[in-house]
Batch of 3 targets.
Target 1
Amino acid sequence: MNKVTISQWIYPIDQLGKMATVHSVFDHSFNLQIGGHLINVANYSGYLSSFGLYLPDAMFAQLFPYIQQGNKVKIQKQKLTAYSIKGVQSVSWQEEEQEIVDLDVAKMTIPTEQLAVLKEVLSNENLEEKIGLDLTEETKTILKKLAYATKEELTTVDYEEITRFLIGRGKGLTPSGDDLLVAYLSILKLKKDSRAEEYSSVLAQSNLSTTDVSKEYVVASMQGHVNSLVYQLYQDLQEEKDKNIIERDVQKVMMIGHTSGKDLSMGLLLGLQK
């Protein structure tokens, strides 16, 4: 990734305003908060968040020393300017130096046989033992509803109970319950399953008591946007790539974060049961 790469979901990057606040800082990324949303500015090769902006090595290294939590960053269409006690630092790029990536799965169509391949690959991973949720009886009941309850069997109360149980459940920057629901929603949207709209409607009306970062992933998933590794998996399925490529894609997804990738994979598997 030598170009500045931007998720379609946040493009143009100045659509929410011109002055952001540094929300959180990590080794190779930071989040900017603006207009009630986040922009994830990162330098991870091969990974783009659904609300992500990738900066190539030199550009990221130039800006990063000026990024501290609470600092202001001015956002322009092709320019970021950080204001710090160290001074002011900008990075900018030309239109031809950027790539806008569409990570919206709702537009995709994947053959049923390919979804069956994905289900088989995921089923072989013993995901129940790897996810970050404790498999209590209550958890098992909720996961069973996600997997097997038909839209006729589910009431608004059920949707509310499931989302209330999962959102914010688990440790980390993106709790396991959130990751699971994000992936689950994406597979329902992919299958044009009306349950996706029911869950999205309930989520839109919930106060989403979870981390800000996780909340942004959930909001993006309600619109069909996923991270680039999940999108690549879907793209390879759509293009009917060989099973070994699908297995490789699943392994890449599973390696995200501590348990995030396993939780996402579990969400995919649950969404493929019906």
Target 2
Amino acid sequence: MSLYAFSPEDIEPLIEGLAIVGTGGGGSPYWGRAILEHEFCMGRTLAMIDLEDISDQATVVSGGIMGSVKVLEAMGVEEVMRHWEERFELLEVTRVMETILGRKIDHVVPFEVGALNTPVMLSLGARLGIPVIDGDALGRSAPETQMTSFIGHGVSLTPMPLIDYQGNVVIVHEAPDPTYADELGRWVVTKGGGMGANNHYPMSGRQAKEAVVPDTISGALELGRAVLQAREEGDDPVAAAIGFLGGVRLFAGTVTSLGEEEKMGFYYTIASLEGRGEFSGRMARLVIKNETMLLSIDEEIKVFFPDLVCMLEPATGRGVMSVDLEVGTPLVLVGVPCHQRLREAVQSEIGKVAFSPARYGYPELKYQPIETLAEGFR
């Protein structure tokens, strides 16, 4: 069995890598770093296991915390960590899932790779005393619970138990509409104090081996190491990130405006950018629903979800969070093909609903890989 035990020296490179592949979302690096530091201070062991090394008969679940970043920030790190030592909602909801399933959970797997949402799952694994699977449902971050490789490979999102900050427990036992559980969960958390946690996608080890996007946590760690090394040695950290990811520099410029649009009942941030350097005279437009969902350059679509648009600081190669964007922010936009398992999920019948571009305002679009849309891959 191949196990990896994290050390405090892994914190910075892991957070660096997770922030890049989070595509603007996945939670705050500040909070992710604080969670990992707290776990080491408490003496807990953070470990991950290779996907292929788990038993076919293992019981695996995914999950995460839900709620508003504003609520976390209002409480502050010390208060949240103290609260989680008394009541860790993510641990509680995992125990609820065990009761529903009637068996012990052997492994947890992150819903997404992101600078907060992956560390919090490592914390869950540490508190359960089990290793986290080196992988996730996307190989990036995503705004909605049904947007996963799992759902397109025969794994049901439900049952999905939720616990909010006030201790209310709600269980979605079954939902034919794959978007229902996510939308209900957000309402529950909003009503219940603005924070909470869920569990979902119960599966066997055998199913996990077919549905999980593998090696994404270790990949983020190695990506972070490559970027940090380039920065320390005076090399181009953006080039290091692009080289590691197998991506393409699609645009470089400065944010000129940020606005909000409403389409079909959903709200999105629209960031407009003016090109710099080799992209001088060109304009880009990002559609953001927590994460970057679509990029057009000079009104021509170049990439859209689930392929990645990573927003990087030009000087440092750091991943930029969408909540930190403001007019004048310089960005390098890097396009990266998503994992083949995610593409298979998008093409499935349920995946066409779960991943529908209508969820971010483009019901007319049908998925096209970045390789067919963007220069540099052709």
Target 3
Amino acid sequence: MMAPPFKDDGRFRAAVPEDAPALALFVNMAGEGLPHYLWSRMATPGQSAWEVGCARARRDSGSFSWRNATLRVVEGEAVACLIGYPLDDGPVVSDYASMPPMFQPLQQLEDQACGTWYVNVLATREEHRGKGHGRALLELAEEFARRHGRRGTSLIVADANLTARRLYARMGYGEVDRRPMVKEQWENPAREWVLMVKPLG
């Protein structure tokens, strides 16, 4: 794990395993309830969906790991979260047929973002929204991208999340491609996943 490209001035901090409950909440916010739906299906008898989410956040590896998370801090409270990682240079050919149908469109889009630093999660607690925390974390993502020698930053957003899409557009992200969602029993008004990329000079 590389040292974070920011000074520990109290505004940001790298996550630690003990942040797992907060990370699970942030991931579910960003995923609009999809993570909780998936965790509920992964849970063993007597285990809650949140317990599954926390266990995954505590892992030392994997895309959803505390090692990939940075927290925005206000008066000691984690109010927003960025989870991301560098994607390998392409081209990428994944075995989509072996994946659960819900994940196939997401992986198809992510594979088009090779060579970027991928913003897997960006979320802010509801009472702290509209205060620039998301923008600050996106700017931090660009610093991560430069430090890793990536050509830009990328993310995937639901087409119905217009507030987030407007923020990303203002930050210089452009739409690259989109794929229809596979929802199963997950309830969400969106219809498509949208890949957005911001090139970095």
